Amino acid sequence: MTVETGAPRQDPQQPGSQRAESHARSWRGLGWGFIAKLLLMALVNALGLSIILSAINAEAWGILAASTALLVIADVVYFMKRTLPLKYIYPGLVFLAVFQVFTLAYTGYVAFTNYGTGHAGSMEQAVDAAMIQDERRVEDSPSYPLAIVQNGDELGFAIVDEEGFVEVGTAEDPLEPVDGGAVGENGAPSEVPGWEIVSRAQLFSDPDLQQDVIDIRVPVSDDAEDGSLRTRDGSTAAIYTSSLEWDPEAQTLTDTETGVVYEASDTGNFVAEDGSQLPTGWVVTVGFDNFVRAVTDTTLSGPLLKVTLWTFAFAILTVLTSFGLGLLFAIIYNDPRIRARRTLRTLFILPYAFPAFMSALLWRGMFNREFGIINDWFFFGADINWLGDPWLAKFAVLWVNLWLSYPYWFLVCTGALQALPGETMEAAKVDGAGRWRQFRSITLPMLMVSTAPLAIASFAFNFNNFTIIYMLTEGGPPFPGTSGLGSTDILISAIYNISGVAGGTADYGLASALSIVVFVVVGVISAIAFRQTRKLEEI
Amino acid sequence: MRKQIGMGAAFVATAALLAACSSDPEPAATTSSSPEETTEAPAGEGVTLTVWTDAEREGALATAAEQFEADTGATVELVQKNFEDLRNDFIAQVPTGEGPDITVGAHDWLGALVTAGVVNTLDLGDKAADFQQVAVDAMTYDGQLYGLPYSTEAIALIQNVDLVGDTAPTTWDEMIQMSNDAGFEDRPFILFTNGTAGDGYSAYPLQTSFGAPVFVQDDTGSYTSEVGMGGEAGEAFAQFLYDNGQAGSGIFSDTIDYDTSNELFSTGESPFILQGPWMPFFDGGEMNLKVSAFPSAGGEPGAPFVGVQGFYLSSQSENTLLANEFLVNYMATEDAQRTLYEADPRLPALSALAEEFSSDPITAGFVESASQGVPMPSIPEMGDVWDLWNAAEIQIITGATDDPVGTWNTMVTELEGRIGG
After folding, report:
1. What average pLDDT does this structure show over B93-115?
2. Which residues in chain A have their CB less than 8 angstroms from residue B36's CB?
3. What is the largest CA-CA distance in chain A?
4. Which residue among A207, A371, A474 places its CB closest to the CB of B197?
């Protein structure tokens, strides 16, 4: 097989050029291309295998299946000669699947669940948590130095009681005094007849045993209400009581003290009849609830509408102003009469070269009402509340974004202007067109052919331009009426706020639902806009 | 003692922990258990405890973990993350089984961690008494202890002794008077507002001095979900903010963020500031400062929020026993807590250390302020408070509203609505 897939076939410079020749003729030994391929594939396989192995270790079966499939397909594609087109497109497809399709599908899945702070795990884990939260140390229980004892497979606890007797018990048999025990120097039993003491070294070396020791509860007497011995560190034990009982069949938790029955509800909580519920819930699918909530929840829908309008205004105005300014400068500095054009052009690009979040933070300081240099230098120390007034803050955001993004358009337009066919312009001049006429009828339409798709991309980018909003105003100033959102919040920063990720009580379900809405909006607008740009090309 | 030298490291650890008892060992017991121990090497080999930490504590944890690693043979793997990311990452990853065994965290995350079911209870036993009560209380939720505290923090009144002398004012009016007398009419006091975002945390000592806590505490000190900011006390505070805001005396403004507050105070533009021990002007000790509890503005003591940092244990840890061993028998010791203090000097939660470091007057001032403080509520409802609360305060301070009482009451009503629904 290795012979058949000789090197020339892998050489992307000349695919197919060898097709006419017979294999025997094309055989020129193992070429460098093949060796390079072999090394690359060895790397790919090593990476794939390591992913597979860690997936097995982590018992992540979904990842295991996916990575195995991708690796097998990769080997087939690159070691078969028939799959030439796939050799080119396969890496792209993998990236598309892993980074695009999977992310989108997973966001879509989360949008239909109540995944968030109170609903983070499975029902099983919620039961675990309820049990953990319910089990309490008996108030006057002392801490007993503990010996963990074993008799064959049976695990037990041995302690020294108040009278100095060694007592031993297991999960089934309550503590009973035994004869002939001895007490060690740490206060725990050092000898228990009939039982073998598990040393700490033994305990630490056996994770399964540790888990058993953590899980076991040794009743202190026949009466269950007296509680049971429990250890957390394997060296001391104390008496704990628990009142919750889990019934896996009926999926109910029963409080044996009060008799209250908590039932598993559709919303992913254990709810009692009187409406009280246990703190920990689990993830369930909730259908379209998240989408409905975004529209019907009155504290959300009003501000969200304003935020949506501002998002469109922000994205459109940013593109228009920065495109306009960039184009203006590009035309001016494209004039051959200007000296040192190259140097000037380089300087123009500087704002684009700074990291946006740094610039935003700097501008934030400069806009400070009291100490900012904008008020001090340009407005004679006037008390203009740039970031505190809803309209001025909007203006400030647009201004900073203009400053950040016009160099990009300057760059793009300069390139596009230089690519314009000189003879067309010449012809226009000969025909007696004025400068304005030339610009409007020839320069601009021809520029638009190459720049309109970039403008759409820029719109989509600014629609979700979280950085500048978060760094410059954090969405503020807040709307009066306190919804948590502010005048300069755009949809993506509003989603961040609403989801509560910053406040600590996250609602990933709602956030995902809103993200999908934003994705659809951006997608639809981009699709329509791209369709429109095709008309431009018909000039 | 000679016998112990030959023993396995695991036994040394146990023995060292129980050194108090070793004065009267029973000969029979020692002989019966020690040969067994000596034959075995340190044992938790192959077991890895994963601990999430932020950058400040990483070094201290590594030091504390060395002894534990030597004693048990287990490996402690420290994973460094941003402190702000720890909470959400912990909540998101513990249920998937990818979470750590232990994480560093703040006590006010507790409500969210408990509702997410990702945190295990902890039993410090007799060691609990070694810690300051407020620290243990803060790590307690619904009567159960969930975390090992190691530091507390609270804001306090910091004054520039060179400008206004070293007498701590006892009331708001007295403080403003001191400032005015010293010639700081323009800026008698600096209140951090996080710029235009507003910061209820920093203004809280002012608010509590009017008797308007965020949530009402029950008899045991646990927070209920009943909002306590409404009513006359809250209205009086709102009016106070307004009267001293931009529409009034102008003491409060929405231009003070972290950098400006540091700059203004360290350059002597103002003699008083309400801030925490983390401010850069404490570094180098060049300023002559006095720290004290915040003077009352509304008659009652100005209680700041006390924040507590500590360690949480994952409910899904596969090494619960070793993790408990690490937290209770290693990290809860004075040595480990001292190492943590040295790496990141915050007020120690361990009483003995807090007392020891209180010989430093600055630390003593913060301890004094914290002692009249209340734990920051850790109930999940607190997550709903910040946005509304900060926004209302900043609107009142800037004078964007000319009806401070109305704005305040709207905020309280909306908050109650959000929490109730």
Report:
1. 88
2. 199
3. 119
4. A474
